[in-house]
Amino acid sequence: MITSAKNQTLTFIIAFLMLIPGLSSAQSQTASTLFDRYSSGVVQVRTIDLASGDKTSIGSGFSVDGGRYVATNFHVVSLLVHAPETYRLELVDDEGATIDATVAAIDVIHDLALLTPAREVARSLRLRTTTPDQGDRIFSLGNPQDLGMTIIEGNYNGLVKKSRYQKILFSGSLNSGMSGGPAIDSRGRVLGINVSKGGEQISFLVPAEQLQSVIDKARRDNSGNGDSSEYQRPNFVEQIRTALYNDQSTFYSELLEGEWSLEEFGGLMLPKKVSNTLKCWGHTVEDDDLLYESFHQHCQSNDAIYIDNDFYTGQFEYDFEWLETEQLNTFQFYNVIERRFSHKSQHSGSNEEDVSEYRCNTNVVSIADSRWKVSSCFRAYQNYDDLYDALLLMAALDNSNTSAVLKASATGISQNSATALFAKLMGAIAWKP
Amino acid sequence: METLIIQIGLRQGRNADIYKLNERELYVGRAYSNDIVLTDPYVAPQQLRIYRYGMGGDDLSWHINILDATNPVLVNGDPVDSATQSVCPGDSITVGRTTMRLYSDEHEVEPTRKLLVSSWLHKAAKNAWIPVCLFALVCLTDSFLNYGFSNTDGEWKEHGISTIAGMGLLLGWAGFWSIVGRVLRHQPHFSYQLLVTTLIAAIGLTQTPIELFAEFLTDSTQVRTVIAYGFGTVLLGYLLHYNLFFATNIKHTAMLACCFSVGLSLLVFLFSISEENEFSSVPQYSGTVLPPVVNPREAKSLDDYIESFGKTFADSNEQ
């Protein structure tokens, strides 16, 4: 019996070991089967410089809506959107054939674009609107660095929690050139669109639901154009402006309507976490040579809306710092404060074509019954009416050996939202009882 | 007019050699046998004879006799073709690279210049320890103020180096003007130069606090810029005025110093403007923060401050 039992166990182990390569082979087979079956629906999207006739940028895209459209990222085709007189679009299918294309619709908030190809791409992919389980295997297709169409295997890890916009966390490694390509499940249904990379094996996808919304909008707009076969270029500047304005309006309305709970921060009571979509960090400035103590709290939105290579917007962040000293005299201590009294640099555009110069309003203001030096700076977006970058900088002036330096910045914010945001932020400050 | 004055070396601010021609004639040339010996290698060993002709009064006239024609002799800038040429007070005679101006003994000299703060300075000259002590005091004060107002890490080293560099700069400046004085006036006046340089530097110590205070009161970086240029120009003007005064015999030192400092400030200003980019993506704002002990400002209400955003937004849209 014992021998028999041993033999049975051995047989089981051998059978199990034989199964492992079989499993691996099955997975590879899934990827290769999917690639064989669906890669014909994926194209390389090239932006062609009209003057030189050669490609200026590349990305990926895939056929959707029965071949009517090719979906990709807005940032893949942004050159053409901003300068249609300088560029044209070209799609290259899996057989190397080129197809001309025009931009049918864009969604700058979610970094999506729909292209209308001059002829249908071989295979159209279906969208999956149901949510996969965390850990499900998904496969991303695209053309990384112009090396040829590839497939990457990874896992679905749900939606990114600290984010203003829905993004799928894909545990796989996307590379440049794959932007706009589809991420499909094992049945070939698109559940996301490749959009960006966050680090080693950390990539992000735009959920297919967002793409479905853009397709629905494009269908509606197209049906409104009647049967006219002539391409009429949409007013993308106005579309971008409207999208940015509505997005900031929604975000800041929610932010301002909500109750801000005050928390202790040094000698102050401050609204330390004003939105769940922000990522917050804290740290103490530790240096044995310093003759003062200081600690920070820093919160920022991790979402930047791409407008063009030099122009990102939609960020909101703030930084609070509490400082105190027993070793420095009041002049030396305020020298430290003065060095800290500097506006944060902004990530959004720094070109004259995109933004105006900053205009600042600096004064000594009474806040929470004490004097603060406050500097508020605004610069207008040149192409998008009533949108600004706004900076707020404050330093407490009334104590000899304690102070606070508070900074906040918002990009792509309207005058009303910026005014209300800064008013609420400054009005919320209180001294610890 | 029986005496002719011959002045050699016409540049302002330098000692000139003066000769009086009382005799009927004198010889000018490079040879030591002449009455006026010129060390100019372009002058002949015996170049000119200057003599008077006539019995005196209106009958008396002065002439030059050219004894060597290797290089031309110019009277009032015009070459003399003949061997003899009459000259009169007010004329200039150029021989080789040397120019002589002729005067009569009745020629009026400029009024006596008054030495500014002469008694104090003469006292200081006698007591050289005054400028030295003042110099040490100013340098130490500068170092102390720097440390007391801006040091944040307790390190003396940086301030020590900065103080030594400042001392070197002041000594170098005073030394430079002493050398100039030695060359032009044969008097270095190092004590004077050090004294005025130190005094101006002492006044200069107040510049930064004044700038900071003015900027803080007005929230305007332009005000600070104006004060910086104004203060700098005035101090440099005064410094140069006294440096020139001690080192040269230039008559209009104040005018010259004023022109130079204003010109230099203008040049620096234009250069800084040319260096600025046409478009700046960096906000320009007043970043001065002063402690409560020197902060006299009344605070604006938060509502009024928020109210004023409208104008700032409008300004940003107007660009």
Key traits:
heterodimer, A: 433 residues, alpha+beta, seven-stranded antiparallel β-sheet, six-stranded antiparallel β-barrel, 6 helices, disordered N terminus, B: 319 residues, six-stranded antiparallel β-sheet
- Please give the number of β-strands of chain B: 12
- Looking at how many chains there are and whether they match, the oligomeric state comes to heterodimer
Number of helices of chain A: 6
Number of strands of chain A: 24
User: Which range best describes the helical content of chain A: under 10%, 10-25%, 25-40%, 40-55%, 55-70% or over 70%?
Assistant: 25-40%
Describe the structure.
- The complex is a heterodimer of chains A (433) and B (319).
- Chain A has 433 residues and is of the alpha+beta class.
- Helix content of chain A is 25%, strand content 38%.
- Chain A is built from 6 helices and 24 strands.
- Chain A has helices at residues 2-38, 74-82, 208-224, 236-257, 330-340, 415-428; strands at 42-49, 55-64, 69-72, 87-92, 98-107, 112-117, 137-142, 150-159, 168-171, 182-184, 190-199, 202-207, 263-265, 268-270, 278-285, 293-301, 305-308, 311-313, 316-324, 359-367, 370-380, 388-396, 402-413, 430-431.
- In chain A, strands 15-16-19-23-22-21-20 form a 7-stranded antiparallel beta sheet, with helices on both faces. Chain A has a 6-stranded antiparallel barrel with strand order 1-2-3-6-5-4. In chain A, strands 7-8-9-12-11-10 form a 6-stranded antiparallel beta barrel.
- In chain A, α4 (236-257) runs parallel beside α6.
- The longest helix of chain A is centred in the N-terminal third of the chain and has 37 residues, at 2-38.
- Chain A is elongated and about 75 Å long.
- Chain A starts with a helix and ends with a strand.
- In chain A, 44% of the residues are buried.
- Chain B is of the alpha+beta class.
- Helices cover 48% and strands 16% of the residues of chain B.
- Chain B has 9 helices and 12 strands.
- Chain B has helices at 118-126, 129-150, 157-185, 190-204, 207-218, 221-247, 253-275, 302-307, 309-318; strands spanning 4-8, 17-21, 25-29, 36-37, 48-53, 61-66, 73-75, 78-79, 84-87, 92-95, 98-104, 300-301.
- Chain B has a 6-stranded antiparallel beta sheet, with no helix packed on it. In chain B, strands 4-3-5-6-9 form a 5-stranded mixed beta sheet, with no helix packed on it.
- In chain B, a hairpin with a 2-residue loop joins β10 and β11 (98-104).
- In chain B, α2 (129-150) runs antiparallel to α3, α4 (190-204) packs antiparallel against α6 (221-247) and α6 (221-247) runs antiparallel to α7.
- The longest helix of chain B is centred in the middle third of the chain and has 29 residues, at 157-185.
- The model of chain B has no long low-confidence stretch (mean pLDDT 87).
- At the A-B interface, α5, β20, β21, β22 and α6 of A face α2, β12, α8 and α9 of B.
